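Collaborator request log, item 7. Partner lab (contact: R.S.) asked for a structural prediction of ATP synthase subunit c to inform their binding assays.
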Amino acid sequence: MGAIAAGIAMCGAAIGAGIGDGLIISKMLEGMARQPELSGTLRTNMFIGVALVEVMPILAFVVAFLVMNK
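Returned to partner:
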């Protein structure tokens, strides 16, 4: 049962992170196309946003291992 729960947790986290990364990057490219002079600021903010989105699968990975080993 723990392995199934861990798999579901990782699946949800991976899907959520993929969607979140895609939205962040697409909006950054859209903003760059509209105002190229702000590309440095937009890129910096995009990297911060992607890092925050990627925390979710890492935490889900840790929780999945905790659930599996319980």
